[in-house]
Amino acid sequence: MEVSLFDYNLPKELIAQHPHIPRDECKLLVCNRQNHTIEHRIFKEIINYIDENDLLVLNDTKVIPARIFAQKPTGGKIEIFLLEEIGKGRFLCLTRGKLKKDTIVYLKNSKTARITRIENSDKRIVEFETNENIYELLEDIGEVPLPPYIQRNYDNYNKEKDFKYYQTVFAKKEGAVASPTAGLHFTEKLINSIKAKGVKIAYITLHVGIGTFRPVKEKEVEKHKMHSEKYQISKETADLFNQTKSKRRRVIAVGTTVVRALESSINKDGILKPQKSSTDIFIYPGYKYKAVDALITNFHLPKSTLLMLVSAFYEREKILNCYKEAIDKHYRFFSFGDAMFIY
Fold first, then answer.
1. C-beta of residue 295 within 8 angstroms of C-beta of residue 336
2. What is the third-level CATH fold of 3-63+167-342?
3. Which EC class is this protein assigned (predicted)?
4. pTM for the structure as a whole
5. Are 66 and 74 a contacting pair, CB within 8 Å?
6. Residue 4 CA: distances (Å) to CA of 7, 123, 288, 316
7. Which end of the chain is less congested by CB atoms within 10 angstroms, N or C?
């Protein structure tokens, strides 16, 4: 299957550069797979499409301030991008700027760290030299790792606003370096209203990695190697999932990260079991969904694995038609953009 089949033309001005405030008043494109219809709504109207005893599954990962600006002993500047915590105060990272082995770098507020290279890799390890809670330290010295298509002037930067709005209101477990953006549209009030309707709420944790922005460089979809991400499904979530399926009610995934976790964990008998694992599942047209019945998602980049995942949930041509409709209606695209509901 050619990667070019998932391409589309997007006017640059439709790439959202700032969050929509209030969160739940962004646009919502509603796509009915059975009737092949499209509706245009406001996101908080999603409650009208979710029924009593349906299960809404959210990703409670929390984005860490993974982008750090530092200074070398020589005075030169470097940028550190944290990828994954591998030990207490130790992270796998990428760096921008020339570094010698075991370089000590100077951070904000007189903090220091040591950076070492991993053999046969462009990745490095950063070891923070502190006894403080590492995540409290990162909130002090780090920046929100916004996607490359969101432009910021870091010399005149509203750190607090981006940290607030590039984080879901239900974010709980630190570890992501990118936000599960379909969840950004929910407010606490909307979640409470959904619960009051009799809808069940469950959480998985999948720490979104930088690989989510990795472009597909192969010409053929099948040759692309998918990145791996860690996730966890609790017993409570597994029980709610299995109860929902036994009652023939719908499981509604909020975002592609939830899809990846659920579809990676359901067994051949349709049972979801609690587990802590990692997944490199690659979902593209031809894949048969086993766990997810409806999907809330944002609008994704051309030729991306996320667009392929969504195209496997519906027909590729129909999804691209939805995208064309969204462009014609001036929807906002990507992380801070508007949403789709496909059911």
1. no
2. QueA-like (3.40.1780)
3. transferase
4. 0.95
5. no
6. 5, 30, 22, 12
7. N
